[in-house]
Amino acid sequence: MSDTSHDPKQGPVPSRRAFLRGAAATGAGLAAGGAAAQNAPDPLITQVQDWASGTGDGVDATPYGMPIEFESDVIRRNVEWLTADTISSINFTPIHALDGTITPQGCAFERHHSGAIELRKEDYRLMIHGLVDTPLVFTYADLERFPRVNKTFFLECAANTGMEWAGAQLNGAQFTHGMIHNMEYSGVSLRTLLDEAGLTSAGDFKDKWIYVEGADASSNGRSIPLEKALDDVMIAFKANGEALRKEHGYPVRLVVPGWEGNLWVKWLRRIEVTAQAIESREETSKYTDTLEDGTARKWTWVMDAKSVVTSPSPQAPITHGKGPLVVTGLAWSGRGAITGVDVTIDGGKTWQKARLAAAGQPMALTRFYLDIDWDGSEMFVQSRCHDDTGYVQPTKNQLRDVRGLNSVYHNNCIQTWWVKETGEAENVEVS
Amino acid sequence: MSDTSHDPKQGPVPSRRAFLRGAAATGAGLAAGGAAAQNAPDPLITQVQDWASGTGDGVDATPYGMPIEFESDVIRRNVEWLTADTISSINFTPIHALDGTITPQGCAFERHHSGAIELRKEDYRLMIHGLVDTPLVFTYADLERFPRVNKTFFLECAANTGMEWAGAQLNGAQFTHGMIHNMEYSGVSLRTLLDEAGLTSAGDFKDKWIYVEGADASSNGRSIPLEKALDDVMIAFKANGEALRKEHGYPVRLVVPGWEGNLWVKWLRRIEVTAQAIESREETSKYTDTLEDGTARKWTWVMDAKSVVTSPSPQAPITHGKGPLVVTGLAWSGRGAITGVDVTIDGGKTWQKARLAAAGQPMALTRFYLDIDWDGSEMFVQSRCHDDTGYVQPTKNQLRDVRGLNSVYHNNCIQTWWVKETGEAENVEVS
């Protein structure tokens, strides 16, 4: 299927000659017998550098490597005033500095309620009980003997962008939208394990639930409809090829594609098939949305389609001045696949169709790009995505009209960055 | 497109009841009012554990995290006798312990000729010259202004499995097949940059070349046909979402999809469009295959279709005894996409069709699984892959018939693991 919407080879190639330094200008032309240099020669071209004449690290230097020191900006960051203690807090993925779609585990955001625990594979147990034919307990080694599945999914916290309900609060895409990551999971489908326990005694699946909890002190009990559990929920033990990191629930976590991050219980310990939702503390006091009339919207599990421009953004200003500029960002939908992303630089008066780096994948992050020629004047940059249900990402005003002003969760509205002539960007609201 | 070849939900669900401990047996049944325990209760079920009653790490503990200490087996390893010095050596990806298809940068194999260097983005320069209309020099910041592409590709060293030409040498998939990794690259297509420099003066592309070299002392000059350069070669600056690691060529490397790893020059410094191949030292003294008649096969760029079972394998023995067993491995082809993988446990007498975790992607790693019921007797486990050109992975004897016994590179033959009744595995050759 040929789709030029994500093929940069199609269409005219705008010349970027104005900003590139010709080889002649750098002095290389002199060596190659070209025209005389018009500017001072670039010593990085004309002189042998240290790294080109010495040796570097051997292959035994880093059995498991870390990023180079020059990338120290690309880290998880937390906001200290958010919660009382760092063990029951959240940090943010540095999405302003990433590209592609995979989020490295090492800088993928964390959300804990009693901190990240150490749980060895040998000590790991998963109990499946309740309305099953035979209650079962699985060791980690047991789980590795069941048929495996691999799938890439985003995980987004329901509170992502939550502070922005009150207005433009945090100055950076990492902080406004960084409660999100995207990983390739390997594991066993929950359906396989539930079939092993047997569901004949569960009766009609449509009105049944599972209650899931983790092995950490906060346990984070959650109720999930049995239909969803049998559909695409995974018991995952690898992410991006290797074991889950300690902070991502080692050795086993739940994966609930497209649904709120809090359901993706880490250090998964127990799954109980039940006749009704447990309505645990976390489910009733948190993770419900208060509407304008005071009633509460609960069990809003699905993460709505959402997108954000990651660059330019407050933490990723334009430093090269006017001319060719790459605008990029991420889009995702918990209801299916992203089918398109529009970008505006005039605050929504006019929209251009962005290029998807690849066709959207269901419930996974999609990378988009728009190549523009920046004239150096201020911009109000936004992105707006579409998913395959026909849903279009709304503005904040459109959301407020429906939800009122007391929402905490599920803020998937269009984000605006005010990009100034200096190239610096600021988080703003536009009407 | 529905394809049940990679859907574990289809078909009969073999009961694994024989090896699972029922919840009643663990003592959980007692608490739940079930049958009396038939075995000693499992304290990991019946007693509150430390990690469930204490707290763990806060969200500020690891701005950039590493794997948990219990995963210390999952590291790059090198073989000291391979080369004279670790700066001009290679290490191996721990493929025996990975799953999925993404290889984390931190444990992805490295091959250097003068060690891994530190090269800052500000100091980075890329020159494109030779048979171009306008020679150009790009800074790193310049590269970020061109239209980007994202694509996942495997990189395999031409010498991968090379020691095995002489017989079954190394006891582990990491060592026999670990000169390989698979990453999602973000960058600019080389075509875009060559178009910027202009190729009208290059004449007929079919007989033109590019010569590429890196900024490290060993520079690693290589000749690549211009046709390939214009096809799918990338200038990459991100892998798996984040910057390339120092050891993978930070900040910029070449990506030559499906072709020998040595072409994927790291710390890319220069690209010269030339009328003929340079035939540099590395290209003539190494990376050519000596055939049986003494002539040399050169410029064997494309990595042929290949596969290997990663588990069970010498470093990943079967520890659970007979019964349900997951056989898994990787398959790939430099000529296109993997269309199927067969697995045998009797040394090739009979073959079963393995399940692909997902449809094969061109020039990227494919994960396969086969779920079997192991009767506990010894096995001779092999995998054999097919790609979309119709090519079938050959046996070592078939390769030797064509190439003779003096080959060093491009050993893509079928690999055999002798799995004993104990579950331990050994590298063997079978006729």
Automatic annotation (TrEMBL), chains A, B:
PROSITE patterns: TAT. This is TMAO/DMSO reductase. InterPro entries: Ig_E-set (IPR014756), MoCF_OxRdtse_dimer (IPR005066), Mopterin_OxRdtase_euk (IPR008335), OxRdtase_Mopterin-bd_dom (IPR000572), OxRdtase_Mopterin-bd_sf (IPR036374), Sulfite_DH_SoxC (IPR030835), TAT_signal (IPR006311), TAT_signal_bac_arc (IPR019546). Pfam families: Mo-co_dimer, Oxidored_molyb. GO terms for biological process: sulfur compound metabolic process. GO terms for molecular function: heme binding; molybdenum ion binding; molybdopterin cofactor binding; sulfite oxidase activity. The keyword Lipoprotein does not apply. Residues 119-278 form the Oxidoreductase molybdopterin-binding domain. Signal peptide: none annotated. It comes from Pacificibacter marinus. Keywords: Metal-binding, Molybdenum, Oxidoreductase.
